[in-house]
Amino acid sequence: MPKPPPVFDFHLLLLLTVISAINAAAGAWPITQQFKEAAQFYNSLSCPTIIVADKDGFLCSDQAVHVAMTLDSAYIRGSMAAVLSVLQHSSCPQNIAFHFVASATANASLLRATISSSFPYLNFQVYAFDDSSVSRLISTSIRSALDCPLNYARSYLANLLPSCVRRVVYLDSDLVLVDDIAKLSATQLGDNSVLAAPEHCNANFTYYFTPTFWSNPTLSLTFANREACYFNTGVMVIDLDRWRQGDYTRKIEEWMEIQKRMRIYELGSLPPFLLVFAGNIVPVDHRWNQHGLGGDNFRGLCRDLHPGPVSLLHWSGKGKPWARLDANRPCPLDALWAPYDLLQTPFTLDS
Ligand SMILES: *[C@@H]1O[C@H](CO)[C@@H](O)[C@H](O)[C@H]1NC(C)=O
Ligand SMILES: *[C@@H]1O[C@H](CO)[C@@H](O)[C@H](O)[C@H]1NC(C)=O
């Protein structure tokens, strides 16, 4: 079988990702990053005791809070901080199961060892995501970072995680929680909804899709009779049973196939989610995704919090707090990420 061109795009993207990872780490090769061991976190007395035969039983338990995140060498510092923040603000940290999705081409044993050495007591599993299946569907977009195949892993959680996991909170790697994740995970999804997320109904959808999309009546009718609101896919509560029943992965892939032929949107993994789910999700309080703290997509300008209470800070956008802190050019709010940074600096290694 001849190799299709997207395979070459994938390697180019991989190269760009590696280069940006090197830049982000200010010259340090990401794989040499050493992380400190986090403190152990204990359940409070009121937490239910999860009685299971083994680790697999725990990773299946309906009583556990299930969290899914991606794991790669470029963002691992962010992932470690996110995990620490989840544990630290949880009243039942020992009842959390982490499901990490890594590229099938990544060194899973290295990722596993890295997590275990910082969180020796963590209940977690690493799943291999075959990114070649999705890179076939990815069209090149203006921001190559968004086209990293692992970005699309959130669309495949229902297949990747064992079928006994029925509900999961998906989290991006560039965020920290300052509240108990059990509250977010307990979001009521009603009789039919597949997912819940904070939504923004004043967003103008015109900008998310191309004129090709809007001028095609068959396509643009997708949003007819729907109160479609924007939502950020970096924080989602997903009913995996309903997702599997409705075959939503297939529905997202169908839009990606159309995108490859016709270019109906500019950004990466977000628009297919909007096409399938916008208008049909359960709204979550905005405190659970104070997003945009990474700043402007092109210049990385600093952003402020949206008004209101804060349970989760999300550095979506181009700038990442670890990169700005390393470069000695932090934004004011990056100081709120720093306490969760587990990176072992050369100084602390020597001491
Ligand atoms: C993966 O990482 C481990 C260290 O945990 C190392 O021993 C091994 O050689 C690595 N494998 C590959 C294929 O790089
Ligand atoms: C959305 O933006 C487009 C293009 O600027 C404009 O024509 C349209 O009126 C806007 N819609 C709303 C509801 O503001």
TrEMBL record:
Q: Which positions make up the signal peptide?
A: 1-27
Q: Which InterPro entries match?
A: Glyco_trans_8, Glycosyltrans_8_dom-fam, Nucleotide-diphossugar_trans
Q: Where in the cell is it found?
A: Endomembrane system
Q: What is this protein called?
A: Hexosyltransferase
Could you tell me the membrane topology recorded for this protein?
Single-pass type II membrane protein
* Family as reported in the entry's similarity comment: Belongs to the glycosyltransferase 8 family.
The UniProt keywords, alphabetically, are: Glycoprotein, Glycosyltransferase, Membrane, Signal, Signal-anchor, Transferase, Transmembrane, Transmembrane helix
What SUPFAM superfamilies has UniProt attached to this entry? Nucleotide-diphospho-sugar transferases
Any one annotated GO CC term: Golgi apparatus
> Does the record bear Magnesium in its keywords?
no
Entries under Pfam families matching the protein: Glyco_transf_8
Q: What is the predominant subcellular site recorded for this chain?
A: membrane
